[in-house]
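Reopening this one. Same input as before:
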Amino acid sequence: MSDKLIDELERDYLKPQVPHFEIGDTVDVHTKILEGDKERTQIFSGTVIARSGRGAREMFTVRRIVAGEGVERKFPLHSPRISQIEVKRSSVVRRAKLFFLRGRVGKAVRLKERRT
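Same output, byte for byte:
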């Protein structure tokens, strides 16, 4: 009963078009950033290592390597701050969460590409 009520209330906050992407895909997340009075778009590219939640509360985690350090960022999927999500590359994975990539560097981070 409460799940149906929550889903009904959240329906207004869902984005109409959400791109299909899966764990292991390399994506570009275009985020709107406010700097004073100006608004600009910042792109965060990396590999999707986790998805969690459902409905308006769905989140996904993107990981990339910057200057030899791993950087992870969590994004709410239906946030109005996210203007666009582009899927650059799809990979074959056999896990629901790719947290094992945190302990890897260099060529060990590569994932096998999915052919479509």
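So the earlier flakiness isn't reproducible anymore. For the record, The two ends are 41 Å apart (CA to CA).
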